[in-house]
Amino acid sequence: MRNGELYFKAGSEDPSSILAEIYEHLLPAYPKFYKMDQLSKLGWLATEILLGPEFRYKNYPADKVGIVLSNANASLDTDIRYYDTVKDIASPALFVYTLPNIVAGEISIRHRLKGENAFFIFDHFNAGFIQQYVSGLLNNDNLQACICGWVETLGKQLDAALFLVEKTPNAGAVGFTPAIMNQIYQ
Amino acid sequence: MNSAPVFIASTGTISSIGKDTETSLQSLENGVAGMDTMHWLESSHKGKLPVAEVKFSNAELASICGLNEHIPRTALLSAIAAKEAVDKSGIDLKSGLRIGFISANTVGGMDKTENFFKPFLADHSKGHLRNVVHHECGSVTEIVADLLGVKDFISTISTACSSSANAIFFGARLIKQNRLDVVIAGGADALTRFTLNGFNTLMILDDKFCRPFDENRKGLNLGEGAGYVVMVSEKIANTLKTKPTISLSGYANANDAYHQTASSPDGAGSYFAMKFALEMSRLKPADISYINLHGTGTQNNDIAEGTAVKRLFDPVFPPMSSTKSFTGHTLGASGGIEAVFSVLALQNDLIFPNLRFETAITGLPFKPVTELLKGKGLKHVMSNSFGFGGNCSSLVFSKS
Amino acid sequence: MEKLMSDLKKQIIEQLNLQDVKPEDIGDDQPLFVEGLGLDSIDALELIVLLQQHYKIKISNAEDGPKVFRSVRTMAEYITTHQPSNA
């Protein structure tokens, strides 16, 4: 879904095939994608869809765009996968993804964003918290835009809802309130 | 709103060099490092890789903080340090103030999960489910918040090795925004086989004691511990018996946007974090009296951090050192522990040495302090914490 | 040697998740890192795992990596000289 419209419907049911299908649909020519863990793939693809081709024309300074993400299970999905490799020979490539904030790192690398990053753990999508935290960043600490929201994966579950919040309002943008965020999330 | 000062009322820490703030200070003054051969952790690397363990068993830790010994070691360490900080603040948490507990960790209850998996993988009917209920990072925070009796605001941050520095400045923001009166913030991490094996596969562990900022550094030593500060608004500070003199005057976080684990060669993320933290505290580079470096002892971190320091401070470099030469790298706890050490430096007018340093890094025009320096009139101390995922944070503490 | 190099190419692609690279795209002497296949430091560690898994060869010093992993040919040569037995 993008801005309320169905963006792409994947035919597969298995999470890794769904993510691969979306990637192939977008065709961003970013071979590093295949190396990411499921959480990073999900957050990375969601950001691709969220920002679309328009974003780079806005020319925000790199250090004025931040990322604030949250979920309930941190990197548990990859922790378990990594643990499986430890029995044989532990995989360094998997280990680097056993931290939830790596997804924010991958998004920063892709879009060359150097602004503030944060990753919070909550039981459920906490729109009120995200709204307050990100508003604080925009109002006090000089961010001009922020990618924020929820990125969660565990086993067969994929669940991401990201928002682009900008200090200067855009034509067609909705207000940044917990009620609207919850509505979009559902 | 941003100019409202946030004061440090008290500190609490536990690590391989001490069970509380006082014993840690003694070790820092006497140059006693906490690394040793592995004692508590069960691992095939025992005897081969030195680690900086807290010198108590889970049962001993549990009896210090009054918790059950079966909860994750990370929670036990967190409870001890957070309780110390709260006790020393002289603040009654039940007096109706708006109180927050913001804690960082990266491993959660991984130690217990490991103990679950071993018998479980061998025989699926075995393994104690009790061991996995606390796996999630957030549950460690909740156990300790319950123990302290904090209910107003509880949050867990997990952004790798800069986690607890981020927890501290997040707490400061909530005070500045007048959403809370008192915040206990920092982080904890216990040593686990998970992190030890992981860092070992990344080939960045030194099989001797680590040598941060040395040309011949071979990698880091893993450590464990916890560190917390109690922060208060000016209004609360004025009501305390001894008015706090140290404030958190600046902080910033930036992303290096280079690689999942490696720092960019020019340390762009570290540079921006330090620069913005200075700007916020309205200081010039020359005003900084001591930098507590991130200084892990890996090839990559130290040259990137050093290059960023060079770019920002050239030509006059303040005294600097990595106290990871004492505590090892305590991951999610390091920003909290080093914040406590930075406050100790200001309170006691001390600059702690960078142990085992011999040769300056080629291309860097400075070297770390190698002996304890006293009475230099410290005013402002910068503490760096950089993490995987490109997450870089700097804090500035000032003495008024 | 030819057989070993063609096996290696397939194993590298699998180990490093290089979905959009085919074995024939990798030249025997093409540099694997930066200007060649564009591999990074974590890939280097995965290649160390590959040698351990498929050829029972252990590289304990990460600094040897750049020499051994310069190209598929240097990897193959390292394997032939360091293989413990014919396994």
Which characteristics define this entry?
heterotrimer, B: 400 residues, alpha/beta, Peroxisomal Thiolase, Chain A, domain 1, 2 domains, 12 strands, C: 87 residues, mainly alpha
Topology:
The complex is a heterotrimer of chains A (186), B (400) and C (87).
Chain A: H1 15-26, H2 38-51, E1 65-71, H3 76-86, H4 92-95, H5 102-111, E2 117-121, H6 127-140, E3 145-154, E4 157-166, H7 178-185
Parallel strand pairs in A: 1-2, 1-3
Antiparallel strand pairs in A: 3-4
Helix pairs in contact in A: 1-2, 2-5, 6-7
Chain B: E1 6-15, H1 21-30, H2 58-65, H3 73-89, E2 99-104, H4 110-122, H5 137-148, E3 153-157, H6 163-176, E4 182-189, H7 193-201, E5 225-233, H8 234-239, E6 246-255, H9 268-280, E7 290-292, H10 299-313, E8 320-321, H11 324-327, H12 334-348, E9 350-351, E10 373-374, E11 380-387, E12 391-399
Chain C: H1 2-15, H2 41-55, H3 65-68, H4 72-82
Helix pairs in contact in C: 1-4
Uncertain regions of chain A: pLDDT < 50 for 5+ in a row? Answer: none
Averaged pLDDT of chain B, please?
90
**Biggest interface pair, residues each?**
A-B, 45 and 48 residues
Number of domains of chain A: 1
Q: Report the portion of residues of chain A in β strands.
A: 15-25%
For the record, what is the CATH homologous superfamily label of chain A?
Thiolase/Chalcone synthase
Helical stretch tally of chain B? 12
CATH class of the largest domain in chain B: Alpha Beta
Number of strands of chain B: 12
Rg calculated over all Cα atoms of chain B: 20 Å
Structural class of chain A: alpha/beta
Order of helices and strands of chain B: EHHHEHHEHEHEHEHEHEHHEEEE
CATH-scheme architecture of the largest domain in chain B = 3-Layer(aba) Sandwich
Which residue ranges of chain B are poorly predicted, with pLDDT under 50 across at least 5 consecutive positions? 119-134
The tally of domains of chain B stands at 2
Shape of chain B: globular
